């Protein structure tokens, strides 16, 4: 796991365990700035056991931060050009 993903995972873990909304926002900001393997944070999140409500909220917020469609599907960003 690379350092960026470790940082994002630590923030998401804090949200999932402690309902720390600031950690979720920080994770989304960090994920949006990530340049490669944008689906890695989503895969990490789906592999974790957590309360369904928190996991669902984190997935929705993370997908929005990555500019992905709200409905799950292949993780690819829209072409900005």
Overview of this protein structure:
The protein is mostly helical and 81 residues long. The chain has one domain (3-65). The protein contains four helices and no strands. The protein has helices at 3-18, 21-33, 40-47, 52-65. Helix 3 (40-47) packs antiparallel against helix 4. The radius of gyration is 12 Å and the shape is globular. The N and C termini lie far apart (31 Å). The mean pLDDT is 87.
Q: What is shown here, in short?
A:
The chain has about 80 residues and is mainly alpha-helical. Helix content is about 65%, strand content about 0%. The chain has one domain.
Give me the secondary-structure category.
Answer: mainly alpha
Write down how many β-strands occur, each being a DSSP E stretch of 2 or more residues: 0
Gyration radius, in Å: 12 Å
Strand content: under 5%
Return the average pLDDT rounded to an integer: 87
Largest sheet: none
How are helices and strands ordered from N to C?
Answer: HHHH
Helix content: 55-70%
In terms of per-residue confidence, which ranges show pLDDT below 50 for 5 or more consecutive residues? none
Distance between the termini: 31 Å
